[in-house]
Amino acid sequence: MKFAILVPDGAADRPVERHGGMTPLEAANTPNMDFVAENGICGTALTVPEDMPAGSDVANFSLLGYDPRRYYCGRGPLEAASMGVRLSPEEVAFRCNLVTARDGRLEDYSAGHIPSEEARKLILFLQEKLGDNHTCFHPGVGYRHLLVLRGLHYLESRCVPPHDVVGREIEEVLPEGPGEERLRALMRLSHRLLCDHEVNRSREARGMMPANMIWPWGQGKAPQLPTLREKYGLTGAVITAVDLVKGMGLLAGMEVVEVPGATGYYDTDYRAKGAYAVDSLRRLDLVYVHVEAPDEAGHEGNWEAKVEALERFDRHIIGAVLDATVQLSDRLCILLAPDHRTPLEVRTHVHDPVPFAIYSPGMKPDAVKSFSEKAAAEGRFQAIPAWKLLDILAGREDGAP
């Protein structure tokens, strides 16, 4: 048996009044997603427990079969694992966004989606100026970077995700609690240092947003996870442009497949991701394919971009994997599920349950005929903890194909 877990990040939404009360999933042309739903078993899943942060880290933990209440470690350590940064027992890793601050407000959580080559220069500059035995900056991808601080008291700091507070007065949403003085000082110092950096002078001259401040959040220490092989006896690969999902895969003992043209934004190469997913399935038992673009569209409130991202995911990734069912010598079982909802009208993650569908050739389907939030509400399973879905996929729980 082969397994494919296909994750359009943030794809699920809420009805949008200005578009006739439809969601992007209902409006998009997604014949392959609809095929999976119509010929499989469907329902809704809770990827994020109500009392935990509605983030991609918690949600993807769930879809990979890990109960987040037991294994959640924060976003930072996952990104550290992806970047090859080993954390000592006394170190805490933060996701460190490069953001745009203007007139005391947070203007953009991604500094206009600054490209990696420009961002790298800024992060290395901050390491040169602010790095010491207790503080280390590591460059990542795009606006997503890593800050490692020594001291477990930072685990208790209360840090707000920047995509939740765009437009707010920065002084109102700074870190609080243990370690707040150091965190606030690093943010303010970064602003002073980056405002006049040549990279930002050039960006502003070209009419682009400057990356003129860091924003630390999502901190945690290194987790200990049982691997996919230890839990299910499976080999696996993860395909994503997002460091936290790569790190999760590495901690789960999976191979990280680097796909040329995978960017974590609208311009990601969907076709290449689909092709590499099929190749991974020929070699390994399971592939986990994650695409960030629908989530970015949700954060930006961009209906057209979200619909287009869903259609490209459907055509080039779902379609490629479905085509592979006739090429693979082993039977293929597919789980299709967003990690969370990122509604266009609130522009951030919410705790609402997400639709899912499980399909394998020859299985007995339920009554659902399309893949959407509304249709999934008629499925066999409702509000199931998402970490149980891999058990269903692998035939360990009732409802398996």
Summarize the structure.
The protein is 34% helix and 20% strand. It has 15 helices and 13 strands.
What portion of the residues fall into strands of 2 or more residues?
15-25%
The number of distinct helices, counting runs of at least 4 residues, comes to: 15
Domain unit count:
2
Largest β-sheet summary: 8 strands, mixed
- CA radius of gyration is 21 Å
Provide the succession of SSEs: EHHEHHHEEHEEHHEHEHEHEHHEEHEH
Task: Report the uncertain regions.
Answer: none
CATH architecture of the largest domain: 3-Layer(aba) Sandwich
Distance between the termini: 11 Å
CATH superfamily of the largest domain: Alkaline Phosphatase, subunit A
Mean pLDDT: 95
**Percentage of residues in helical conformation:** 25-40%
β-strand number: 13
The level 1 CATH classification of the largest domain is: Alpha Beta
Q: What's the CATH topology name of the largest domain?
A: Alkaline Phosphatase, subunit A
Biggest sheet, spatial arrangement of strands: 9-8-10-1-11-12-2-13
Look at the helices and sheets and give the structural class: alpha/beta
Instruction: Give the overall shape, derived from the CA principal axes.
Output: globular
Written description of the protein model:
This protein has 401 residues and is of the alpha/beta class. The chain has 2 domains: 2-73 and 224-393, Alkaline Phosphatase, subunit A; 81-220, no CATH class. It is built from 15 helices and 13 strands. The chain has helices at residues 24-27, 31-38, 56-63, 68-71, 75-82, 116-130, 180-194, 198-205, 228-232, 243-251, 270-283, 293-300, 303-324, 373-376, 389-393; strands at 2-8, 41-46, 91-102, 105-108, 135-141, 144-150, 213-220, 236-239, 255-256, 286-291, 332-336, 354-359, 381-385. It has an 8-stranded mixed β-sheet with strand order 9-8-10-1-11-12-2-13, with helices on both faces. Strands 3, 4, 5, 6 and 7 form a 5-stranded antiparallel β-sheet that branches. The model has no long low-confidence stretch (mean pLDDT 95).
